[in-house]
Design goal:
- This protein has 122 residues and is mainly beta.
- The protein is 0% helix and 54% strand.
- It has no helices and 8 strands.
- Strands 1, 2, 3, 4, 5, 6, 7 and 8 form an 8-stranded antiparallel sheet that branches.
């Protein structure tokens, strides 16, 4: 089964610079949840865009056939770490259709905030 699209965009991105609570569970983070419902592995590339400098990437990820993978942007390091306390956006491209959901955990205070939305696709 092929479900989803090959190009997705998350226009809103921000990793808070600090967290409240036990790590790694309560570390403030951004995540892209990737669903590959197809019978082929998905080879995914993520580009990060900024307001004041050139884009960074691609970050390369494989999502196995009929699998899901949750990618914390905090953990992306190659070609360079995604900076904290910095606005950014991302474009996610795959060689097979996937579904992308965006999530942020903001744990800078005791009352944590969690937001989630489906990314934009063309």
């Amino acid at each position: 089964m092929e479900l989803g699209k090959k190009t997705w965009a998350i226009a809103e991105g921000y990793i808070p610079a600090w967290s409240h609570g036990p790590e790694p569970q309560m570390t403030s983070h951004e995540a892209a949840c990737l669903l590959n419902a197809s019978d082929r592995d998905a080879h995914v590339e993520i580009m990060i865009y900024f307001s004041d400098r050139e884009p960074v990437g691609p970050y390369k990820i494989t999502v196995g056939a009929r699998r899901t993978k949750h990618i914390r942007f905090n953990n992306l390091t190659d070609p360079e770490p995604v900076p904290v306390d910095t606005d950014y956006a991302s474009v996610i491209r795959s060689d097979v259709p996937i579904v992308v959901q965006h999530t942020r955990l903001d744990s800078r205070q005791d009352a944590n905030a969690l937001i989630s939305t489906i990314a934009y696709t063309e």
